[in-house]
Each structure stands twice: as C-alpha cells, then as structure tokens.
Design brief:
With 356 residues, the protein is α/β, with parallel strands linked by helices. The chain has helices at residues 2-71, 146-160, 165-179, 194-198, 228-231, 255-261, 268-276, 286-296, 306-309, and strands at residues 87-91, 94-102, 107-108, 235-236, 245-246, 310-311, 316-324, 329-338, 345-355. The strands form three sheets. A five-stranded antiparallel sheet has the order 1-2-7-8-9, covered by helices on one side. It has a two-stranded parallel sheet with strand order 3-4. Strand 8 (329-338) and strand 9 form a beta hairpin. Helix 2 (146-160) packs across helix 3 (165-179), helix 2 (146-160) packs antiparallel against helix 6 and helix 6 (255-261) packs across helix 7 (268-276). The longest helix has 70 residues, at 2-71. It is elongated. The relative contact order is 0.15. Mean pLDDT is 82; it is low at 118-138.
Amino acid sequence: MKPKSERRQRGVALLMVLILLVLMSVMAAKISQQFSGNLQRIQYQLSQQQLRWAILGADKQVLNGLAKDVADPQKAGSVQQLWKEPLERVDGEVTLKSELVDGQNCFNVNALLGPADASPAPGNAPGNAPADGAPAASNAPDALSPEAQREKIVEYLLTSTGINAVSAETVYQQLEEYLGVEKPGEDSSRRDFTQAYAAQKPPRVPARQMMYSISELKLLPGFPLSYYAKVKTLLCALPAIKTAININTLSRDEAPLLSALFFGSLTAEDVMRLIDQRPEAGWETLEAFKAQLEQQFPVKGQAANLDKYITLNSQFYTLYHTGNTEALTLRSADGLYIDTASGNQLLWSRRYRLVD
C-alpha cells in the first residue's frame, strides 16, 4: 500500500508542477504580448513625432516659396508660381510628399452668410420697363439681389453634378437653415426642416454657424450622399463670408464654377475653350479676362457680378502632406490664409489621419 500511496503523491505533485508551468507560460505570453504592444505603441509615437517634425519642416519650405510668389508684383496669377512645384523629402526613415493646391477653385458656401442686398439695380428692377418700352426680365442677373444670385449659382453647381432641380432647391434651403442665414422679412417660401432633422439617426439640429468643413453637407437631411464626391470638387467651406474664384488656376474639370456665374448661359464647354486660350502666365488684369471673354463669347452682360465673384490671385490654399515610415503613414491637410497686403501667413486648420 505504501508504494501505491507514494506513486499517487508523486502523480499529484507532477500535476501541480504541470499546472504551474501552464500558468507561468500563460503569464509569460501575456507579459510578452504587453511588451510587444507597448513597444509597437512607442514605435508609432516615435514615427508619428518624426512625421510631424518633417511636416513642420516642409510647411516652412513651402510657405517660403509661396511668400516669394506673393511678394513678386510681376507675377500675373498663380499658374506658374513656385508653389505649383511638388515637394518630396527623404530624411532617414521618413519619406514625405507635399502638395499645395489653390483653395479658391471652388464656391465658398459660407458666403451665403454675407450681407444680403435686397435692392436690385435701379434700371433693371423687377417690374420696371426699360426705356424702349419692352418688358424687363425679372430674372436678369442685374435684376437679382446678391442673395438671389448666390442661390442661383449654388443650385446650378448642384445640378451640374447630376442632382435634379427639386433636390438642389431643397438642399440649398437646408444649407441656408444649417448656416443660420437670416432673410429680411417673412419668407413664405422657406420650408421648416425641423422634422427632417429630428428623423435622422441620431437626431440632429442645424448648426446655425459657418461650416468648418464641406463634409458637413452630408449632415443635411436632403443631401444625396452618392453625389458628395462630385459636389465637394465645386463647393468648399472657407473661414470667410465672401467667395472669389481664381480664374487663373481654374482647370477644365472646374469649368462649371465659371459657368455658374453666367447661370448656365456660358456652358461648361465654352469655359473649357476659354481656359484653353488663357495666357500661359494667366490673365494680368480683370479687364484682360473680360476682353477675351467678350471676344470669344459675347455674354458679358449675362453674368453675375464678375468683379465680386472672381479673382486673379488666391488668399486661401490647402497644403497636403503624405509621410511614410516603416511603422505607419501620416496624412495631413493644412488650411492656409495669405494676407496679400502684408504677406502674413495664417494656418487656420490642420487635420491629421493615421494609416497603419
């Protein structure tokens, strides 16, 4: 009996040793996993810090080139300026690509918050007949207030992306409500979208302030999300209540922007032909642009107030960075404002996105 009892005790002891070994193995694996996770987080933090330092260095280099362009009075526009050159930097393990793009190749929706002028031009006021006795067209550009012009321009841009006219009108009215646009007097045509916002998941209310990003369009109850990719190339959200499209950097793909200022009477195809004939260094003056426009397409009187909606040089830019290390990829988009009078530069927004 005694040998049997000893064998049983040895068996129990061996079992306990095996259990302890399993527990120690589990603990060792957990400690190793935690160590690996901490090491990976440290590598991510170091890589992120390296990329951010590289981005700050690239910012300084790009802004120096941009400052030279702004300070050069001989530059007609932005077509051939230094900032158009892409920048690529390699510093140790960091590879950084930077690209500066014009921020005024779009219509700024925050301009809807600008002052409204309900007084159309006296000679073209709705209901007034011209000197020859012919009835005046109430929808002529000169007969529209700046507020009405902005409405027609935005709705035209929306429909140019494929959105139907009814949806475009609804989106515009919701956009006004979202921004908190105040109209003088009572406007019976304005709809109440309170229920539409409340029906969203989660329920929302209009922000009633300037948009920080054009992606906020997707918060509008009536905005068709499938068209966002096209709409965001024509509309933007800048920290200003004015909008001015830079015709010297306008591309063929952005032709609807200039067409919208003519409410479609100057088609996108016409604008493409106009851009194809643009001087190599851009138009030196607004009068030179108007002269070419009048020569190619006699529609000068059919446009909205061009002096108000177009410019030859930009003050807003967006600086894109894509940085890579072995651990991760960091992308950023910096919103820049340049005071052309003083040359001062202001970074008004910065957005980061990490990609493992």
